[in-house]
Amino acid sequence: MATKKSWAELSPTQQRLIITGAVIEGVLTAIALVDLIRRPADCVRGPKPLWALGLFVQPVGPIAYFAVGRRGM
């Protein structure tokens, strides 16, 4: 079993990749949340509060919302 590395033990490239991934997840979640808030309830498959909670399941939530949760306006 692999041992956990501390942040300082990671290479600069690994650190940049982790930060980039986190930023992408944050931006995608924010965009999905804004879309969910602005979209009428009849244009969302399922209850909006449930989707709002699901958006914070990373990285699956925002992707699932964009792939399945939205209906055309």
Question: How would you summarize what this structure contains?
Answer:
This protein has 73 residues and is mainly α.
Describe the structure.
60% of the residues lie in helices and 0% in strands. It is built from three helices and no strands. The termini are far apart. With 73 residues, it is an all-alpha fold. α1 (12-38) packs parallel to α3 (60-69). The chain has helices at residues 12-38, 48-54, 60-69. It has one domain (12-69).
Defining key terms:
single chain, 73 residues, mainly alpha, 0% strand, elongated
Distance between the termini: 49 Å
| Proportion of residues in helical segments | 55-70%
Coarse structural class: mainly alpha
Report the sheet-strand fraction.
Answer: under 5%
Q: How many beta-strand elements? A: 0
The succession of helices and strands, N to C, reads HHH
Number of domains: 1
Number of helices: 3
Mean pLDDT: 94
By oligomeric state, this entry counts as single chain
User: How would a textbook summarize the main sheet?
Assistant: none
Overall body shape: elongated
Parts with pLDDT < 50 across at least 5 consecutive residues: none
Task: Specify Rg, calculated over alpha carbons.
Answer: 16 Å
Q: Topology, please?
A:
Layout: H1 12-38, H2 48-54, H3 60-69
Helix pairs in contact: 1-3
